[in-house]
Design the sequence.
């Protein structure tokens, strides 16, 4: 008769010990992401970049939001088109646009010497969060027109 009682006592003690342990909240995984829309018309390339404030906050000091100029400078070094392997220059100014709450949005215009062999370099936030994802939409005027139009 002692074995069932000992097992029940052991179970009761284990339950009491576990009940006394602090419970840690589950931490949700917050994905690092940004969104970009590229509009290409020959050598003219327009980029609108939308970024959650959580991402731009990584650029600030002490957890503060950086200024528009700081975000613009960071992005200008890391997000740009290339034409025939040569980086296309920005047509200033970069514009900070109004955005939904908790987001920041910037408009860039690039003037490439040619619309031939265009490539997009998107390296923003990967230096801060290697698993960052940029969701890009690319609208190319050349591919939107049919050969019969």
Sequence:
């Amino acid at each position: 008769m002692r074995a069932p009682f000992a097992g029940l006592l052991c179970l009761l003690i284990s339950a009491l010990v576990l009940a006394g342990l602090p419970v840690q909240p589950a931490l949700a995984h917050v994905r690092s992401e940004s969104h970009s829309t590229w509009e290409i018309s020959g050598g003219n390339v327009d980029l609108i970049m939308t970024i959650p404030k959580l991402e731009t906050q990584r650029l600030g000091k002490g957890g503060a939001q950086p200024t528009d100029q700081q975000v613009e400078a960071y992005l200008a070094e890391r997000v740009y088109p290339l034409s025939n392997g040569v980086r296309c220059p920005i047509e200033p100014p970069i514009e900070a646009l109004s955005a939904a709450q908790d987001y920041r949005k910037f408009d860039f215009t690039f003037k490439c010497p040619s619309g031939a062999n265009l490539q997009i370099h998107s390296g923003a936030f990967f230096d801060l969060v290697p698993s960052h994802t940029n969701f890009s939409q690319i609208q190319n005027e050349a591919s939107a027109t049919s050969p019969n139009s």
